Structures are given as C-alpha cells and as structure tokens.
Amino acid sequence: MKKYRHPKEKRAMLVTFGLAIILSLFFATVTFGCGLFILGIAFAWGYFALSGKNNLERLKKVSPNTNPDIWQTVESVRQKWGITDLDVYLHPTSNINASASDFGKNFIIINQGLWQAVKGEGQRKFVIGHEMGHIGLGHSWLSVIAYQADNAFAGTILSFFFQFILLRYSRMKELSADRIGLLTCGSLEASLEALAILELRKPNPQKVEIEYMVNYLKSRKANLSESFTEAFSTHPDIFERVEELIKFSKKLGLTSN
Ligand SMILES: [Zn+2]
Asked: What is the pLDDT of residues 193-219, one digit of tens each?
C-alpha cells in the first residue's frame, strides 16, 4: 500500500520528521530531551490504549451476524490490502463520518449516519478504503510520534512553527487515504460521490443532490481565503481532495465519465 502514499504527504512527512529529529537531537544535548521523548511516547501509548478501550467498549462491534453488509464490505477491503487484526465498530450517531486508528490496535469506527448516507458498493468501498488507508499507512502512529516531538520543545517559538508543519502533514495524510479509497473502489465517479456525500452532510441525500455537488466540486478550485483557512485546518480543502483524486485517477488510467 505504501507506494501509493501521496507525494505531498511524503514531502510533509519528511519535513515533519526531519525537523522533529533535528530539534529533538538539539534539545537532547542540553536536556534529557530524548528520555522525555521516549517517556512521552510510552505515556501516550498508555493513555490512548486506556481511553481508546473505554470509548470502544461503549460501541457495538460489527460482526457477520449483527451487520452482514458492513462486515462483507470491510472484509473484502481488508483482504485486498492484507490488513490483519482489525476491529470494526458502529457508532450510533447521525454524524456523516468515520474514523480509524492503528495506534495500539487497528480499528475503524463507522458512524451509522455515514453508512446510511452512502449508496452502492462503490461509495462504500471508497469510504472503507479511505479508513483502511489510514491504518495501512500507519497514520496514527506517525501522528503520535510527531506530536510527542512537538511536546519536546513546547513553549518555544519552534513549537509555534512546528504546529503549522504538523497541520499540513495531517492534511496530506487525507490525500493519501483518498488514493487508497479510489484504488479500493476502482471508480473515480463513486469516489467523488462519496466525497460529495461527506460534504453534503445530509441523512438521505438524493441522487440529483449528489450529482449537483460532484459537478460543483469539479468546477472550481480553492480560492485564496479558502487556502488561508486551510493552513489552520487538519483536513485539506475539499476542492484539493477532488482535484488530487482526478489527477491520480488519470495517472492510474481510470476513465471517468
Ligand atoms: Zn481520513
């Protein structure tokens, strides 16, 4: 899966970890930076494992008996990417979203609202593929390490700049996950429809509304004010996601209509 990592994520990753290593080494010479760094990771591990476990215990685990349709889609995507040891949970919320983690334990949380809003196997595979992409590319692990590095020089001016680098890195991870989503469903159309549904945030979007949103997203690029807002956001501008997916599908030779 790793060869599909978006070049923008690779660059952001390099900058993030390059800086993290340089700064950690610098602080390690004057303080116990490295020791604190390792302690920090251990602490984060404990914290995430414990709080994650508590949160997950309240959710319903997806099984072939309870949710055969979700189970089937997840299983086919899991096998395609060779992800092992994965749990899937259904969150009883109308919020059109999903999330994933590979820190401590691989799991995906699918919100009921999202599963009801997406239509057809293609869109479902894009959504599950996107989350599986976060797991396969080790995004949670990389985030925890990067944020621990940031803690190592908290309170300094460097931390302020590092925040922007971290935010950019978070956004680029989404572009990579979108690529895995597209490769999973094999259809640019279904991928863009799924993104349109996430953007619409409606419980039961109609086909005509989805089509209208897809065309709108394809029709324009991010303007300057959107790019500026993006600099403070963990998620990339939706127009950038659409643009990058179209570019990637061309590269793969997927024909769109
Ligand atoms: Zn994502």
From this structure: 999 999 999 989 999 999 999 999 998
Range of the domain at 53: 2-252
**pLDDT at position 241:** 94
Lay out the sheet containing 60-61: strands in order across. Answer: 60-61, 86-91, 106-111, 98-101
- Amino acid identity at 77: V
> Does residue 22 fall inside a structural domain?
yes
CA of residue 179 to ligand 1 center, whole Å: 11
Distance CA 129, CA 149 (A): 29
CA of 177 to the centre of ligand 1 (A): 6
- Say if residues 133 and 99 touch (Cβ distance below 8 Å): no
> How sure is the predictor about 224, in pLDDT bands with cuts at 50, 70 and 90?
low
**Nearest-10 Cα torsion for 184, 186, 190, 196:** 60
Q: Is residue 257 part of a domain?
A: no
Ligand 1: centre distance to CA 9 (Å): 13
Taking the C-alpha atoms of residue 15 and residue 18, their distance in angstroms, rounded to an integer, is 5
Residue 66 Cα distances to 33, 117, 124, 159, angstroms: 48, 19, 18, 46
Specify the pTM.
0.83
Tell me the C-alpha distance between 143 and 135, whole Å. 12
Count of domains forming the chain: 1
The answer as to whether 216 is a domain residue is yes
CA–centroid distance, 22 to ligand 1, in Å, is: 28
